[in-house]
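anyone seen this seq b4? input:
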Amino acid sequence: GGSVRADRDRDAMRLTALAILASLRPCAPSGADHILREGTLQPGAVAAPPRLVFVHIPRAAGGSSMNAAPSVLPKGTTLLGSAESAAWSRLTRERLGAGGGLVTMLRFPLSLALSQFLYCKFQLRRRKGRGRFPNRDPGRPRAPTGGLDEWAAHFPADTSYGCYDPTNVQYRFVAGNGNARGAGGVAARMTIDKAVKFLDDEFYFVGLVELHAESLCALTHATTGRVPAHCGCGVDAPARRATHGKIRKLQNVTAAGLAPAQRDALARITAKDLVLYARALLSFERRVADVRARTGVSLVCDGKFDALWATTLEYACAGAAAHATRRVLHGSDRRCS
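predicted toks r here
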């Protein structure tokens, strides 16, 4: 009894120290990343890692995913966030320890970049109240996306208006040790092919924001070997949606609604992210097929993958991302036209 309490006290002190370390970073994230969440499901035949660290990419359903952890993970498995730092940051590696596993959610890169712009414009920068942030287009009426053209054209850059830097942020989080507010933290020798290998080999689980509920069901299967009763296409159950801190008045502002030139501008600064997202989409499609083969349950309804592929390949198969995308899709049924 005493030794168990001592171990718990040491763990609590260690978590407190790590939280303080993370809080020293400018614009530190909320305390959600520092809550140790414990699984509540009965363990299954699968030996789940004792510790999971959620690599929290800002605006990619991090809060929703971490909050859901107790109800989708087995007893004996805990989850902590990375405090909006990358997979190879000191904080993430400290929290991971030996025998732990990395999990994350990737988001369609154009949607992620737009969400980061909107959050910076309407939330973070407004709260901080310092410096100038692009907020309107000269000669045009005010609009939620006012300033987006100037913001996207600014990157890549050494500064990010004191907020998120969208330049290949998911690539930086998979392959680097930095955070979302600066483009640094990725080794000069890093390549997109190495980053894809990291995504394949170093992450225990990768879900998709666009299939958030289905991803959480797949995570339960990965850690227990079972599919919850509320999962599966056609099951009448309350939807578990990714919120990623939505601002109500901006819920209808989507990447699909942007002008073609604006979408192209966001694709330009997220070319590596598009390659990683294509790989994550392919891997998740294969995972869903495996779950169906093992359990008979279709986690994703017909047509959803095709719709995601149509949007993804439109941009991942064009411009700077095209050659790498063809490589990551090689040997699959999905390919660039």
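Residues 105 and 157 are 26 Å apart (CA to CA). Strands lie at 37-38, 51-54, 78-81, 101-106, 203-208. kinda curious what u guys think
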